[in-house]
Amino acid sequence: MYEPNVVGDWHEYDEHAGLRVRVHGLEAAEPPRGRDDAAEGQTYFRLRVTVENRGERHLGIHLEDGQIDVRIGRDGEAAFIDWRNSQFIEGFDVYPLRRATAVLYAAGPEDSLSQVDVQIQLRVDEEWADRRLWTGGLGLQEPVGTHAATLRDGLALQVSDFLREQAEEGTA
């Protein structure tokens, strides 16, 4: 079992030399074109998914609806995704030393937003990359400065311990 990434961490894809992706910028935010009626009574949040090409050739990137799954709370319920306000990466050629960023608006009950899991399945040059998971939550700060490694390692360790406990309960 691989360990999930922490929101703010980069993940490098072995099968696509130089390609890396990260989920970051997880914060409470109102959508630019107004709230969707289906999200009434819920708290909106925004997250960014950045794809960076550090390789030697350009790569065609697709990160559209259906390739991003957002789950919230201890039970991992689906968050409401506001497709109308979100911006995706649809068939964009990311050249060497360039980035492309998708911005996703979602909503959920405020008490569930302390735990947010984001699963990404990137499509690169018409090939599907492996799914990867990032975990974080509203109110948790992304690692910055001298305490970055400690905070990231602490949260990653907590997530790993939780997943290990859940796996052990399921095998009993």
TrEMBL record:
- The domain of life is Bacteria
Name of the molecule in the record: DUF4352 domain-containing protein
The protein's organism comes out as: Streptomyces nigra
